[in-house]
């Protein structure tokens, strides 16, 4: 980790150089995957089949389509919510309020898309637009992050994120300066984290499934599984929308290029890679194998959901009967750390469940290609890195209590392995 001059806060992601490199590498990787998924050999590590020129990347019509999508999701966000939740306490002791209507947005989007398709909208044409759509999303992410950076120059220090105030413009642009950028009650980070990208991801998957049905008469079992698992994951995230308020992205990270690009471009266009691969490279899948994969996904989901819910319940109300009997370690901050239950098994049981699900999403694509395993490999790297960042933050927050927790629960993600 690099250290900024005159400050003791460590710089993450390799400092300004690392941030600059990631701002080039991440979009390049996304376009590489989009191009390779539709190529014959579909080699993850080989060269892309061709380098797209401006005529392939740029389309004003596609940009308009993308902006309409963002506008639709913003309008759904502003609809009356079934509940308004409070976030964690901020530095100035205040708490922000967030509408809980993400699942409603998913259902309304499904209804609108259903209506549009029955009125003749050719959803199966979407897969042909993925490259210019990804370009529009990347462009939006760059412009949006720039506006967020400018906005953050005018906010009080208490509104800044702990990490994005190094003073280096490249690094701060990447990590994000302001913790919770808002205009009136519209929270940009919370909106982007759960709506346009996540819902866009399952819409792209659906379009790929429909195109496969057009091409081959019906969608393959592998395509059904990938669509079903990922729709379930997104539906679950939106159903438990409130839980995102205690994640690192909302409580610690500023809103800059990393999250804007991650939410708006990376998630919809790379997380749909398995379905993209299956459209161009159909894979046979028998019922016994499909059943085994469903069991793996169910196991992953069970661990992921139970672990996340246990921590959320505990953080909201440690005396809740569902968690009151668990063993804890007191910390100097007044908060406690769970040391039994899921959080006594490993230090990040939720990551373990998420990784098992990631594997289940790749398995329907067979073992002939490495490409559909990209998500699993990337996600392992992301979570290992994220776990290390979280450890660092927890050590700062909880000091000796965190060391005691690490002594009592020695494994980070996988019991007896890591
Ligand atoms: N699909 C995807 O692309 C991604 C999915 N995810 C998923 O998002 C979810 C949230 O992940 P993330 O925000 O990284 O982290 P976590 O939800 O794991 O939150 C970590 C925080 O939990 C608290 N905590 C840690 N240990 C304990 C304990 N023993 N007892 C009580 N509280 C504890 C600490 O915060 P405090 O004490 O301040 O409450 C810590 O900072 C995960 O399920 C992850 O798998 C994450 C990234 C990408
Ligand atoms: C582009 C870079 C490589 C890094 C970008 C990371 C982002 C794509 C992820 C950071 C944390 C995320 C979370 C989810 C999606 C991916 C990003 C934005 C999440 C919304 C997925 C659904 C889960 O149920 C969740 C727990 C709500 C996730 C929260 C974190």
UniProtKB/TrEMBL annotation:
Pathway: Steroid biosynthesis; cholesterol biosynthesis
Topological type in the membrane: Multi-pass membrane protein
Domain of life, per lineage: Eukaryota
GO CC, alphabetical: endoplasmic reticulum membrane; nuclear inner membrane
Entry EC number(s): 1.3.1.70
Gene3D superfamilies: 1.20.120.1630
Role description: Catalyzes the reduction of the C14-unsaturated bond of lanosterol, as part of the metabolic pathway leading to cholesterol biosynthesis.
Name of the protein in question: Delta(14)-sterol reductase TM7SF2
């Amino acid at each position: 980790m690099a250290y900024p001059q005159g400050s003791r806060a460590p710089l993450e992601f390799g400092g300004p150089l690392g941030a600059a490199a990631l701002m080039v590498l991440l979009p390049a990787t996304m376009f590489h995957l989009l191009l390779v998924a539709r190529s014959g050999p579909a080699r993850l590590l080989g060269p892309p089949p061709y380098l797209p020129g401006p005529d392939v990347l740029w389309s004003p019509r596609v940009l308009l389509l993308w902006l309409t999508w963002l506008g639709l999701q913003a309008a759904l966000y502003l609809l009356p919510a079934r509940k308004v939740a409070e976030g964690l306490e901020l530095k100035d002791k205040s708490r922000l309020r967030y509408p809980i209507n993400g699942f409603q947005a998913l259902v309304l989007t499904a209804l609108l898309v259903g209506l549009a398709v029955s009125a003749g909208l050719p959803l199966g044409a979407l897969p042909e637009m993925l490259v210019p759509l990804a370009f529009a999303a990347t462009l939006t992410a760059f412009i949006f992050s720039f506006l967020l950076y400018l906005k953050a120059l005018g906010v009080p220090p208490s509104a800044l994120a702990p990490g994005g105030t190094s003073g280096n413009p490249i690094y701060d642009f990447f990590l994000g300066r302001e913790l919770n950028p808002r205009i009136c009650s519209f929270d940009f980070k919370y909106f982007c984290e759960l709506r346009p990208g996540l819902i866009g991801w399952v819409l792209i998957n659906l379009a790929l499934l429909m195109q496969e049905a057009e091409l081959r008469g019906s969608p393959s079992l592998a395509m059904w599984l990938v669509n079903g698992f990922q729709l379930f994951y997104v539906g679950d995230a939106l159903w438990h929308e409130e839980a995102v308020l205690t994640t690192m992205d909302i409580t610690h990270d500023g809103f800059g290029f990393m999250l804007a690009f991650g939410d708006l471009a990376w998630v919809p266009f790379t997380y749909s890679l398995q379905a993209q691969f299956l459209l161009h490279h159909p894979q046979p899948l028998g019922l016994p194998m499909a059943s085994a994969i469903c069991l793996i996904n169910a196991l992953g989901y069970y661990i992921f959901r139970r672990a996340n819910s246990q921590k959320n319940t505990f953080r909201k109300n440690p005396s809740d009967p569902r968690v009151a009997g668990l063993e804890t370690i007191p910390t100097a901050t007044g908060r406690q750390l769970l040391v039994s239950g899921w959080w006594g098994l490993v230090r990040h049981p939720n990551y373990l469940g998420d990784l098992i699900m990631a594997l289940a999403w790749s398995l329907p694509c067979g073992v002939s290609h490495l490409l559909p395993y990209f998500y699993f490999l990337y996600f392992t790297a992301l979570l290992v890195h994220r776990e290390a960042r979280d450890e660092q933050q927890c050590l700062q927050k909880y000091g000796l209590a965190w060391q005691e927790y690490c002594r009592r629960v020695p494994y980070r993600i996988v019991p007896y392995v890591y």
